[in-house]
Here is the input.
Amino acid sequence: MTRLGLAARRLRPGAAPLAAALLLAACAVPQWQKPGTPQSEIERAMGRPTLAEPLAGGGERLLYSRQPAGQQVYHMDFDAGHRLVRVTQVLTEQHFQALRIDVDTRETVRAFFGPPAWVDRVARFEGEVWNYRLLENNLPRLAHVHIDPRGVVRRVMFTDEILGDFDPGR
Here is the structure.
């Protein structure tokens, strides 16, 4: 008997529906959704969005964030007829570099990127540092958005995210 056959025989009763549900959940990937799909169908497959924002012309943007552990935030834009127009992954250095220093605010950052993975305070800056995980060229990176006490973006910085406990001496 094959390994797959042995594994199938070892499944406990009731495990098959769970396996089917996991496979169906795996199909609910934002970038796989097709333009023209009704919003209700997307929400049924994807679940509740992290944020919802109105768009010009009567449309709506659903924001699905994989923060704090994930490295993606998806905008799913719908037209006034509640049909999917586009899906955009926005956690990129290019999008963070487009933030307008001394103009953008805590609210505009949250509306575009969603809630940060975590918030820090640092000694040489009066205010909060919102940290977002992202992948750039398949490398884990961090975007650090410095927001002053009035809620205005003052600086954006990037660092590499060191994952795991790498010790070259071992």
Remarks:
- The longest strand covers residues 128-136.
- Residues 78 and 84 are 4 Å apart (CA to CA).
- The chain has two domains: 30-90, 93-160.
- Helices lie at 3-10, 15-26, 39-46, 93-97, 106-113.
